[in-house]
Specification:
This protein has 3 helices and 2 strands; from the N terminus they run H-E-E-H-H. It is of the alpha+beta class.
Length: 81
Amino acid sequence: MEIVTQMGKSGRITVPAKMRMALGVQSGDEILIQLENGAIRMIPLRQAIRLAQQTVQRYVPEGTSLVKTLIQARREEAARE
């Protein structure tokens, strides 16, 4: 989907309603903006978080709790000090 829009005086760009609906974003939602190879990429923050979680999950053995692993590592670290 491509739509032409204009940048306002203060550098703001209005994301057209069609694109907001396609992204599933509403007023007040947080958006991650990335600059990639001279292009701007916008991703709803909740989607960016979900993608990051999926990426990390591929490297974590099933049944492993990263939270428990981190807490255990911190306890061991504190015990050494």
